[in-house]
Amino acid sequence: MQNLTYFAILEPSEDGSYSIYFPDLPGCISVGNSLEDAARMAAEAASLHIYSMECDNEEIPAPSVNLSKEDTEGNIVMPVTIHPDLFRMKKDNERIKTNITIPAWLKRIAEEQKVNYSRLLETALIDYLQIPMSGRQ
Questions:
Q1: Euclidean distance between CA atoms 36 and 54, whole angstroms
Q2: What is the spatial distance between Cα 101 and Cα 5, in angstroms, rounded to a whole number?
Q3: 128 CB-side CA count, 13 A
Q4: Average pLDDT of the residues of the chain
Q5: Is residue 129 classed as helix, strand or coil in its secondary structure?
Q6: How far apart are alpha carbons 75 and 72 in whole angstroms?
């Protein structure tokens, strides 16, 4: 299992919240209402950012070991370890909603028969796309 540890910079706000960014992950930002929430949000933001980069076939930046004075002064520096393989598996296996269009008469009959549309569509797509058992998530 792959682990990556990046430094998160937490900038405290007057209201007790924290703005979060990662010098190694440009564009990866978040916010937390407390220090504990900020730690959780930082891990989630970094995981999602790396997942998106992987989906876009972008090169994943190596974590750096040096931070600038600008990043650290007056801020909290927190190492955040993420597990991209586990996050990818979770995201790839999430159940998502999708709309379908079928004739009203067919919907009435299916509902009378208590058809599980999600299960039926998933099974039909796997069969139609000829996805082997080993290729299933």
A1: 28
A2: 45
A3: 6
A4: 92
A5: coil
A6: 5
